[in-house]
Amino acid sequence: MYNRLTLISLAMISLYCSSIAQPLNQKKGFTHQDSLRGSINAERDWWDVDTYTIDVTPDYLNKSIIGVTSIGFSVIKPGQIMQIDLQEPMQIDKIEWKNKSLAFTREGNAWHVRFPDQQKMKEKGTIKIFYSGKPRVAVRPPWDGGWIFQKDKEGRPWMSVACQGLGASVWYPCKDHQSDEPDHGATINVTVPDTLVVVANGKLLGKKESGELVTYSWGVVNPINNYNIVPYIGKYVNWSEDYAGEKGNLKCDYWVLDYELEKAKVQFRQVPKMLKSFEYWFGPYPFYEDGYKLVQSPHLGMEHQSAVAYGNEFKNGYRGRDLSGTGWGTKWDFIIIHESGHEWFANNITTKDIADMWVHEGFTNYSETLFTTSEFGVEAGNDYVIGTRKLIQNDMPIIGHYGVNQEGSGDMYYKGGNLLHTIRAIINNDEKFRQILRGLNKDFYHQTVTSAQVEQYISTNAGY
Fold first, then answer.
1. Is 342 helix (H, G, I), strand (E, B) or coil?
2. Is it the case that residue 247 has pLDDT exceeding 80?
């Protein structure tokens, strides 16, 4: 017969499994489509993305979208055939380059685009891709994601996207591989009925009205991962504040549904404390030019760069629960802390292959411990991270298979965090450990990396 402690442990493990389920690590085998998506092949290695400009108009009633994506690129070696990714059942209607139509063929979720001549090294170009269709609708966002067509509590449209792992190509054409971020940022233009508001990454560039429609333009100037580029569409209101950070004043914007404003103003008071803690441990917030935003979302949360998705019901803990079982996890809002921690690990430092995703999740899991330490002391932080060990499954490696778009075990969260706690204990010098964390964010600033690079960096700088 189970005793009370066992039942609590089982309940926590069940909650843990539901909170960090990684559908991509459940693949039993790999196909040619997995290789097309997960590898840098001959149709991807000759060009580098400079910019994305995404123009999209969603149709809430028909659950469809129509759009144009312009991809600015640089040629880094001669090439003629370019792979563009757009997932079924979405459809590419036309591709233009230098005002001419390009020929293309489809192979599942990959589209092979042929230029009339081989492109020469160091040349720059822009292709314009016209597309339409009904994107995959999210089943259980953010874990089993896609485009989200929901209603708020008052029955009004509320739309967004959650596509980590699944990929940005679920809703717009792109080079869907983590190793190639647009070096000069991205612009997203979204057209909606004038009764709705659009929020997206970066800063608001403008708003253009046309009859009963309005187009909101948002832009980031920093490199950004494909899956981080998302719109939020609903009856939003906002307020702002400046945070006096290591690089000057950081503009912080908060966007929530109109009827949640007062709750949010209380709950989001945790943001300055979070920024103070993470700038101490990790270094300056990596995207001062694009600002920091917390945006209420129709799902639990996601680390969308400079526009962090928040859906934690304005409660402390993980929807009011403490995943560590120690009591410390209900002293702060899990989504504000965890998803914002990803601005440093996942968004500033991004792994080239999703197989190394433990770098994103392990370090960000440990950010929860470091925030607890900052607010409540070293012993509180230690208790928190040790309390999470019972959630480790030891089911499979935390590093997945390379080149096939496969994540490792969900243990990348809590085993990853406890690994870092062990390293911290071995170093036995918190200032040295802190300088390693800050050094990672400085030396790999706005870069894509491998797990091996991160491991070597820690070993070299720790002296072990």
1. coil
2. yes
Q: Are strands 292-296 and 308-310 parallel, antiparallel or unpaired?
A: parallel
In the predicted structure, residue 9 carries a pLDDT above the cut 80: no
What sign results for the dihedral spanned by CA atoms 290, 165, 420, 330? Answer: positive
> Could you tell me which residues come within 8 angstroms of residue 379 by beta carbon, excluding any fewer than 6 positions away?
none
3-class SS of residue 136: coil
Q: Which residue has the tokens 């932080």?
A: 381
Residues 13, 323: contact at Cβ < 8 Å? no
Q: How confident is the model at residue 23 (pLDDT cuts 50, 70, 90)?
A: low
> What DSSP character marks residue 123?
-
At position 227, the amino acid (one-letter code) is Y
For 278, 286, 421, the CA distances from 291, given in Å and listed in that order, are: 15, 9, 30
Q: What is the average pLDDT value for the chain, to the nearest integer? A: 95
Say yes or no to pLDDT of 3 above 70. no
Cα separation, 263 vs 328, in Å, equals: 22
The sign of the dihedral angle between the CA atoms of 171, 177, 178, 183 is negative
CB 306 within 8 A of CB 340: no
Query: Is residue 330 classed exposed, middle or buried when 0-12, 13-18 and 19+ CB atoms within 10 A define those classes?
Result: middle
The average pLDDT across 391-397 equals 97
**pLDDT tens digits, one per residue of 264-279:** 999 999 999 999 999 9
| Amino acid, res. 136 | R
Phi, psi of 169 (to 5 degrees): -70, 0
